[in-house]
Amino acid sequence: MAAYWGRMPTRKPDDDRLALMQGTLDLLILRTLVTGRCHGQGIARTIGRQSEEVFFVDHGSLYLALQRLEEKGWIGAEWGVSENNRRARFYSLTEKGRERLVEKTSQWRRLARAIGTILGPEEQEG
Questions:
Q1: 10-15: long-range contacts (C-beta < 8 A, 24 or more apart)?
Q2: pLDDT tens, residue by residue, 18-63
Q3: DSSP states of 51-94 as a string?
Q4: 22-118 CATH
Q5: Where are the domains of the chain?
Q6: Long-range contacts for 109-115 (Cβ within 8 Å, ≥24 apart)?
Q7: Half-sphere exposure of 116 (CA within 13 A, CB side)
């Protein structure tokens, strides 16, 4: 599976940051929009904060993903004014996107359980 760095362009990649597998960014965007509409910068900040700063979403990757999700009908977009009083595009989850989120979340949880089973308990590491 292809991987890419999910990082902000203003920071240098470190060894502590994790590569995101293809499709992960889409899932994280959809999950972020469950709580309501948000502009791109807010989505990137939320993903960083909720991942305890492990993921830093590159703006180029983010906006390509947002465009792709909008084309698939999983999110909608409209222009509005941000908290900085700037014009911004706000994204929201569609019903189709909500269904996709449920499906993909289930797949990721199955994948994580399977990997966890193979790796075994953490205390065996070392």
A1: 11/56
A2: 556 668 999 999 999 999 999 999 999 999 999 998 888 888 999 9
A3: TTTS----HHHHHHHHHHHHHTTSEEEEEEE-TTS-EEEEEEE-
A4: 1.10.10.10
A5: 22-118
A6: none
A7: 8
